[in-house]
Specification:
Elements: H1 4-7, E1 14-16, H2 21-31, E2 35-40, E3 43-49, H3 50-58, H4 69-72, E4 79-81, H5 86-96, E5 100-105, E6 108-114
Parallel strand pairs: 1-2, 4-5
Antiparallel strand pairs: 2-3, 5-6
Length: 127
Amino acid sequence: MITVDQLMTRHIVDIAAGTSAIEAARLMKSRKVGSVLVRRNNEVIGIVTEPDIVRKVVGAERIPYYIAVDEIMSSPVIGIDARRPVTEAADLMEQHGTRHLAVMKGGSIVGILSVRDLLHPVSMDEL
């Protein structure tokens, strides 16, 4: 059984609530990620993804310099335990209509699992 922690991205990228959508997009570009967690007072309050910026800002003809990430984020962040099977993660994504899950271990976020991660093969050595 392939588990979520075998495919997740361990490098978590976050941004402060109130930061502009343009800064979030720049951060995603520089870190080569498709999402950033939004934090307020060291607590994760949401997630902003590339489609959020495209659909809720650019597609709505809003000016990204003036749109805060907390206006376009998805909240709450849907999470899954790191030891759960990836099939359960895929079902959870479909159920909630999301492409990203926070991966949890001991009540803390330890990674992010994206739909794209589900496409990566796992070598037999990792099983």
